[in-house]
Amino acid sequence: MEQLITEAVGVLKRGGLVALPTETVYGLGADAENELAVRHIFAVKRRPASHPLIVHVASARHAKAWARELPVHFDALARAFWPGPLTLVVWRSDRASDAVTGGQDTVALRVPDHPLALELLEAFGGGVAAPSANRFGRVSPTTAEHVRAELGADVDLVLDGGPCAVGVESTIVDLTGAEPRILRPGGVSREDLVRVLGRPVRLGADGADVRAPGMLASHYAPRAGVLVVTPAQLYAEAERRQTEGLRVAALAPRSVAVPAAVHRADMPEDAAGFARELYGALRRLDAEGFDLVVTALPDEHGLGLAVKDRLLKAAAPRT
Ligand code: AMP
Ligand code: MG
Description:
The protein is α/β, with parallel strands linked by helices. The protein has helices spanning 2-13, 35-45, 60-64, 74-81, 98-101, 115-124, 144-151, 190-197, 231-243, 271-287, 304-315; strands spanning 18-20, 27-31, 54-56, 86-91, 106-110, 128-129, 157-158, 171-174, 181-184, 202-203, 225-229, 248-253, 263-267, 292-296. A ten-stranded mixed beta sheet has the order 7-1-2-6-3-5-4-8-9-10, sandwiched between helices. It has a four-stranded parallel beta sheet with strand order 11-14-12-13, with helices on both faces.
């Protein structure tokens, strides 16, 4: 393992790309201070250059070098949730180039909670810019196999850290406004943020200027169409589409009724389990050739909010 980390550090230092496991999803990482390497991430993902990347660092201490001032709430949130699935948006220091921030005056920072990622970041010392290791707009990878299948030779090295424990992306909190705001729900629940901050936390960007791909209409999309319904509607909707001639799969907890003729992709009843298995299930259903995934939303508690966000974006009209 030590040798792999040394090799990965070498790749980063040479300006190459390393796919790395985190507790949320696999990231496509490059030296955040090497503009050419960062641009390479955008090329491989086919991601528009205006969409900023998250800079991953080994600790809150490392994070501070990327911020020109530390917003109120930064320490409380970092102490409570790092390492962990929380990304903090702060005013950038000179270290954060336009390539990483999409030309914005802010930078997104995170300390991931995965032993391999932390070892790599510690050994590398600098920041690793890493979006999810998938083509732009598609389903994020939660295993090393997903990364190899999707990006193959476009990545110099894939570190295999097993399946991701959280399974959906980090919660992004913007600390540069008058009050903290959730730009993207994710692995840290809104309830936990409220508990630590001792105040309500709103969802959604403050102005129109914050560019986050996770905030576009269609994102996290499998090849199959996605139809989001309530648990009570699922049976009739799935049956109707199947009768119309589509190959339909029902993605729902076992407690939800599904017609016998429709393939069931059983999901855990709890939101955290649903989140953990969501992307793997969407990839599997794509591989099995289904035309349409009909799915029922879990309620919004805990990770349910992130699952709802991903499913609604996966279901949005594609461009
Ligand atoms: P992903 O590509 O799935 O890793 O998502 C990274 C997310 O972080 C995207 O939605 C980015 O746009 C968002 N992000 C990164 N930097 C910033 C920033 N400075 N302000 C707002 N969102 C950001
Ligand atoms: Mg992504």
